[in-house]
Amino acid sequence: MTEESRDRTQALNNLFEEAFEEIDPVAESPLYSQLCSFQERYGHAELIAVGGMKRILKVLDRYGNRYVAMARLHEDASDLLFDPLIREARLTALLEHPNVISVHDVGVDKKGQPYFTMDLKVGDGLDVVLQKSLGDGGYPLADRLEIFLKVCDAITYAHSRDVIHLDLKPANIQVGHYGEVLVCDWGLGKMIGSTDEIDDDVLLNPDLLSGMTVYGKVKGTPGYMAPEQIRGGTRDKRTDIYALGALLYAVLTCRPPLTGDTDTMLQAAVTGDVTPPTKRGRGVPESLSAVVMKAMALEPADRYASVSDLIADVRAFLGGFSPVAHESGLSTELMLFYRRNRVSCNLAAAFVAMVVVVTALFVERLSAKREQAETLAARLRVEKQETETLAEGLRAEKEETETLAARLRVEKEDSEALLREVGRLVTALPSDLVAAGDQFSNSFFHQRPLVSYELTMRSVNEVIRAEPERADEARAQLAYLYFLSAEFSRAKPYFAINPERMRGLVRVNEMLAESFDPDLHKTSATQLAGIIEKAQSMNRKALAGKILSYDYASLGYREGYGLAVSAMFGDHAHCFTYEAETRTLTIDAGGESFSLRTKDEQYPLRFLPIKRLILVDTLISDCSDIASLKMLEMADLRGSQISSMGDLEMFPQLRTLIVRPDQLSQEERSRLRPQVRIE
Amino acid sequence: MEQQHEINLSKEQWKTQQTLIVRARNPNDSQAWDEFTSYYAGFIRMVLMQLRAPLDDLEDLSQTILVKLWKNLSTVELGRDHARFRTWLGTVIRNTFHTHCNQAASRKRRETKAAVPDVVPPDIEGVIESEWRKHIIALVIERLNASFSGKAMKVFAMTLDGKSVDDIASTLELTKDSVYVLRNRVQSRFRKEARQLRSYLEFGQ
Lengths: 679, 205
Hints:
With about 675 residues, chain A is α/β, with parallel strands linked by helices. Chain A has helices at about 5-20, 25-30, 30-35, 80-95, 125-135, 140-160, 200-205, 225-230, 235-255, 260-270, 285-295, 305-320, 330-340, 340-425, 435, 440-445, 450-465, 470-485, 490-495, 505-515, 525-535, 540-555, 560-565, 665-670; strands spanning about 40-50, 55-60, 65-75, 105-110, 115-120, 125, 165, 175, 180-185, 190, 575-580, 585-590, 610-615, 635, 655-660, 675-679. Chain B has one domain (about 1-200). Chain B has helices at about 1-15, 20-25, 30-50, 55-75, 85-110, 125-145, 150-160, 165-170, 175-200.
């Protein structure tokens, strides 16, 4: 301790002293002190009800710190009433049941007055509840029946303890807001078979009771009192059952079972003149009415033997069965069955309805389907016929296709030839470019002038790029190519490289380059004819043919093309006359012999759309000379030596043939006749 | 009913909570006497030291006091009041000390033939009171140390040093609530132990 700081020592001392301080009992346990301090257990008394014998006060139970109800005799009550009060308290205290009011304390106050305390009632008396239900917004019947059943539970319990109430009525039943139901006022109750019963006279002596109304000589309340009670006969459990019946009556109808003045009511009770509840209120179930009438039977022996039987019947109703008391018919039983099994019945009905509806829908769908099927069948029949027609068509088409295939094969062979040509071109460049100008075969150039031209242009450019030592040769080739495509200005510089090699052309080119510029306007047919003439005159027939082929491929047929084509025949050009309007070509050879084919096996005439051909004084003897005329419709062969048209497929459009009478053999005539008119 | 219940309770108390003093009054209970000695010998020595008894005489004096206590404990009348035993204890210590002082003074007078003033004893009751308190507090702390964790005792110690709850919480890495709980637990145990010890050591009945 010595090394502890002064503060710590002080703190410890304080703590030590705290331990032994006088403890204030109030502070330590205020509730205990409070409880010890009470002189009086009850206080704050407030009168809440007054009866014939006693008063009910609301008092504060200081011990339990709650309000309770206290029952006391009137201030000036006779001592003779002391025992009845205590007896009531003890009797009630005997009954410990949630639906029986509880007694908390029985005692004698300082003035020597007996008292007992019990639950402070909450909510309303059943009489008030029923009154409210009579109007709108009260408890519905099902809830009221629940309340009634709780009363029955309380009475069943009391009966099991051999206690009978003898004053059951709505006013003696307290209904709380949360389903609490309390049976109160056991003042008239008694132990069955007990001998300590207090003389009725005491309870009924007006001298003893403060001037409150008592119903004549009768203990109890008319309307709820059993006949034997009124008559002063033996009272037992069945007396309570009568009262419960009357209570049920009130619960059902919300009205007391008997009406009128006291005497009338007593009279009615004694004679058993009770109007059935069904006649007193709307919507009263007949079966429950039967329960009431059985419970209120005049003779105790006719009533329910026990409260549990009564409960069983009410529960039977609530569960949807018919009570024993109610002799119900088949329809009622069925109705009840439905009510009991409302959900199941509704479900079953809904299910049946659904099945019916579904079946109906199904049947309807089925017939619709059948109709559909029939329509479909009809349509199918039609379609079948159509299909057959189509099949025939297809067969025809197939044949056509085969023909086409055959033609394609031919074309394929052509293409292969072309490919070979191209292959040759690309793989092997000609050694002498300048001499060539036709390093591709002539037939290939005439077939594909543009492709051929382009390929040559490329290969030449390739040579210029790749083989500088041959560049000049290649450039000379360019001159030739540009001349071919009538691009004289462009050709000019290339001609200048080696003017000797193509001396003639250099001059022609220079001349042409000055005369027109194909970049500004396309070469006209007349100009073309001029160029061809020039080439022909220089005896460059192959060049002339290529110029024409190239021109036709790039620019096509145009006005005056007949001249250009005629120019191809050089000296014989004057023999050809082409009329563009009628597309008629007249060849007047004047007895001279020349071929319509060039040396290159080309047919310059194919560049003209010729429909009519008139041969005058020619020596043409082979129809193959005119084989290139695909559009030929009419041919006047009188000025020729042609004696056979050969393959008519060469002339798909040919319709009219004019011949000399003896020109065609009989055989040839008959062969041509189906297709061609021969004049 | 209530009356009966009360009587039962006090009987129980009697049996289980027999105090050390009560047991030590029985001359045959040597174990109780040993325990008594262990509790009081140190205390008596401390009181004598506070009274400035000469160190040479300390052992003798405390022995004498213990013998006196032992001789008279069984016969002395002790009330229910817990102060009685300590009053008696104080009386025994004071008388023994006085006697001793006077004897020593007269011996000195005899020996030196000089006037030796009577030793004016200091406030002997006060010394006994404060020493007793220290003694009990030390015992209580010992017991607390035995039954609480180091952390709880640290909280307690820091509280005694006047540290705030926030300080304690942050220093010991506890939540404030834990600090409150531990502090209150140890403090209330302190009070309880102090009460128990005192009644055990002081109550004669």
